[in-house]
Amino acid sequence: MCAANKLEVDAIFVYTKHGEMASLLSRNRPNPPIFAFTNENSTRMALNLQWEVVPIAFDLSDDMDANISRITDLMKAKGMVNAGDAILLVSDVIPACVTLAVYQSLKVVVIE
Asked: What sequence ranges are listed for the domain Pyruvate kinase C-terminal (predicted)?
């Protein structure tokens, strides 16, 4: 069973450059929707073919806290998430300041 289902989150936000993590999550068929944020147009187009993945063009930065804040504000404004929703945040974006061995991250946040 997918961790997102066990955690009972309302949505999954994936920060991705090449779409690998969003594709892996899609294969597990989680109950919550998967929103994949990428700054690569080819990745966004390819993710349209993945099960239950909603690719969204977004200029990602190395500052994950800033990404989280900007994206949750955007998604709230679009009515895609609401205050009180639990969101699973997953990233396969490699920040410039870390090694390849430590780039994947997972975090659960509640939207304020």
From this structure: 3-92
